[in-house]
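Justification of resources, computational component.

The compute hours requested in this renewal are based largely on the per-chain cost of generating structure records like the one below. Each record pairs the submitted sequence with a full structure-token output. That output is archived, and it is also reused by downstream analysis tasks.
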Amino acid sequence: MLGQIVSMRLARGEVAWAQVALLVGVTAALGTVFALNFTIGHLRAARRQVERLAVNQERERVVRDMYDVLGHTLATMTVKLGLTRRIPESSGDVALAVGRFTELENMARTALSDVRATVSGYRTLSLDSELAGACMVLRAAGVRADLPVATDAVRAELREVFGYVVREAVTNVLRHSDAALCTVRIGPDWVEATDNGGYTGGACARNGLNERPAAVSGTLEGGSRATGARPASS
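The structure output for this chain reads:
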């Protein structure tokens, strides 16, 4: 630009400021266009990255929820199948065996409905229903259940997370422990499950369950015979 002004001064003896202003305007306009194109390119790349991250997060959600649904249900069905298999060997009670098989059929249908709801993103979980289910499953497996009778003290925003913790803890007790007693205790912002068998709660932290307490700024702790969740500030 300075060279153009000097050239005009030497050639004409004066500077055509109108032409200089026009040249400045054209240069600024071209620079703006190039800058906009550069910015648009980066925005498009960022949007594609966000879309990929959203797809990955949704895939992880589905995998995690499918594990929660099927892991618990399959563990329960395994226990029930084992108990049902013993009926012909012990009492030979055909009616009781048929009743147990009917329960298993209903559980399979419920699991299928849960899978469909999970994939659709509409599945919800209740702490009360999980405690009731835990009581039924533990007793069916011959494990004494010492569970809360009321959940009114639990904060509303933590009920679903605590339901997942109870479900996974009970599932792991059935899978990995030889316990005769499983105890669950809850408070306004904490939940703890313990057993008197050989299970250690660290298995919970390895299967992705720790992401759920983290979503409500909480932590999952697993130790010898205990699994619990509480806010990070506790």
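The CA atoms of residues 218 and 234 lie 9 Å apart. The beta strands are 144-146, 181-187, 190-195, 218-223, 226-231.
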